[in-house]
Amino acid sequence: MNYLILLFVSMFCLALAVTPFVSADNLADGLVTGRAFWTYLVVLLGSVCLLGYLTERKRLRITWLDGAWSLFIGWACLSCFSDGNTLSGKCAFLLSLLVLWFTLRLLFLFRPETRGFFTGLWLTVALLEAVSGMAQLYGFTYSHHTLFNLTGTFFNPGPYSGFLAILLPWTLHVALHSRKLTGHYAWLCVLVICVVLPAGRSRSAWIAALLGSAWVLISYYKAAIISYVRQYPKRITAMLLASVLLLAGGAYGMYHLKKDSADGRLLMWKVSAQIIREQQGLGVGVGHFPEAFAEAQASYLKHASSQEKWVAGCPEYAFNEYLQIAVELGIFPLLLFLGVGVSAFLQAVRTKQSGIAGALIAFAIFAFSSYPLQLPDFWILWVCLCTLAIPTGYTAGNNWLPVQRIGMIGMAVCSLFVCTSAADRYKAYEQWNRLKMLHNNKAYEAATEGYVALYDILKQNPRYLFEAAQCLNHSERQEEGSQYLRQAARYSSDPMIRYVLAKNEQEAGNYLEAERLLLHAIDILPERIYPYYLLANLYAEPDFYQPDKRQEMADSVWHKKPKVESQAIREMREKVKEWLNKQDK
């Protein structure tokens, strides 16, 4: 029985570590949804493994950190419930994270040797990720994005670079503290990561990797550094001054490397802070950040500079996880999340786990200017880092032992419930993936009924809703299509949703509503050319004819500078030119 349990525990650890390599080609958005569904199975396997330890006399010493994490997950789940998303993927994944947390805590209690096994697995993950990136760079394999040749097992080089940046301090710690084969293996991981990381061109990942690794190096050479500082204080002063100048120059260079991107990110943070103030720190609900952002940006840009209007976008995320948590959940859950991270870091420092501490630093820095917590891989890595940082204290048999055993059974039941409730969502994503083939081939009428049948399960997914609305529109069911588009606008800031909705209203004869939607879309993104073109068309309607406004919109289409020149913009300008020529005659 002991060997059987050990086998299942090893399978669980391995399955958890390989999550970043899971890809479900049979599912829509398989790189993300496939890993979420995989997580449900892994967590179920882990909680079932714990049932083999029901007869153990050890009891886990619960810390306030465990309570803070439970409260954070509970708060987020309540937010899902209040929005009617009881069985949504977000809620199910949050429950899986709660079960995973305590599964790992108990596993490290009953099997302390799994800590070393875990470390070896994550080092291997880092090496394989880096090697896959190098293979893409040299053209041996394809990336998962048409615009980038380096994505690793992710869909974008940003998350890929961030993932490597978080693992780098951990691998560096193992390399410094291990000898012989393990040390050589860890140094190989460090070398390959350092070679491929610059190619990702992610400034956030570079800074995270640099500071996380610096913590590991300072911790390792602490005694030598203190001795050198005392012996050569003037040299240290000069080196610090040179470092400050070098960092300032590097920061200036990184800012100008992608200046518009940096300005756009700063705008996102300003708008997100405005939402937090307007909501008085209470949150808008899980999944509603894009909608709240679009409304707040429309208000903010009325008094913004020309540069801010130029760099404005329609992001799905805040590109700052702390702001996103505060926007969606509120200030109190943000404090809980920060408390968990800071406490885990302090525990890692106290127990001299500088690799874990460095990885947590890198994670915190990367989360400041990116979106790691929107992907299942990073949540799993976060939970693993935090649980590894906590010392496994326990108390021998006492009166609370039955409570822990009930909890272990409860985790298994919860995992089983999450898996069974996810079965319908899995089939829905599978069906949606098949329907996307019809949609992409413009067989809209053939796909319409299939899309409509998935509404109850996928009604919180704006991409699905937009595709369904397109099918309904091409099937002469514009009124139903408009309902889908209004639902999609609750979960997305994409202006195209508002453009298509305005066109539906125009075809239905609701010209004032169409005008309101397009003017509001211009408030959200004033530098986009398409809504001006649509307004020019709207003002040409015989029952809504307004020549002065049409002329104004046509001038905007002709004179506004596009962010990217395209065939669509050239065609719009040609049509505008025809209008102006006819008007002159």
From TrEMBL:
The chain crosses the membrane at residues 34-55, 62-81, 87-110, 117-138, 158-176, 183-200, 206-229, 236-255, 329-349, 356-373, 379-401. InterPro entries: O-antigen_ligase-rel_domated, TPR-like_helical_dom_sf, WaaL-like. It is found in: Membrane. Keywords: Ligase, Membrane, Signal, Transmembrane, Transmembrane helix. It is a multi-pass membrane protein. Residues 189-338 form the O-antigen ligase-related domain. Residues 1-24 form the signal peptide. Its main location: membrane. One of its GO terms (molecular function) is ligase activity. This is O-antigen ligase family protein. It comes from Parabacteroides absconsus.
